[in-house]
Every structure is written in C-alpha cells, then in structure tokens.
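A note on notation is needed here, since sequence and fold are reported together in a single record. The reader may check this reading against the record printed directly beneath this paragraph.
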Amino acid sequence: METIQQSIAGFPPFIITLATALVLLMVFIFIYVKITPYNEIQLIRDGNSAAAVSLSGATLGFAIPLAQSAAQSGNIADMLLWAGIAMVVQFLVYLAVRMIIPGIVRDIPAGKVAQGVFLGALALATGLLNAACMDV
C-alpha cells in the first residue's frame, strides 16, 4: 500500500514535467520552422522526404537533451534553462549547415534528400553530444 501511495505522490510532478517538455517540444518545432526560409510542415504534407528527414533530425536533436534535462533537473527552472540551451544549439547547427551548404535553402524544398539527411544527422549527432555534456 505504501508503494502505491509513493507512486501516486509522484504523479503530479510527472505530469508537470511531461506537460512542460511537450510544450517545449512544440515551441522548438514552431520556432525552428519559422527560422528556416521554407515551411517544413507544408513540405512534409506535400510528401517532401528531405524536409521530413531534416525536421525529424532537428526534433530528435532537441528532444534528446530535453529528455536528459527532464531526467536530471531538480526543478522546472533547471529544465527550462537546459532546454533553452538545447534550442540555441539546434538553431546554431542549422546556421552552420547553411554556411557549409549554402544551397540547402533551395535543396530541401526541391526534395534533395541527401541535404535533408545531412542536416538531420548533424542535428541528431549534436543533440546526442549536447545531452552527454549536460551537467544539470
């Protein structure tokens, strides 16, 4: 009985943390789509694989450090701080790839999957490194 009470006592913090993480994930996707000069969501709706891969990689590249911060943070403020850092890192990855492959702003809307895979993989790799380097 005591175990059940302890589990139930942990439910409100779980819900608050999960809801915060989901809102942060939605905010990240919203901002990411706004900073790119093309609308990934519409491109994905139109069947563009390059956009799907690049946005998926960026989303995972953000979600992994977000999950790490949720697991390690002692409070929501810490989680928000590290989520903000993870967002900035993902935005910087996008800008770096734009510098490496300037034509990517035309290539992804054109459906060139190689560029989408490269951007998505770099975003995912950076997210993994970001999460591993967190000391919250």
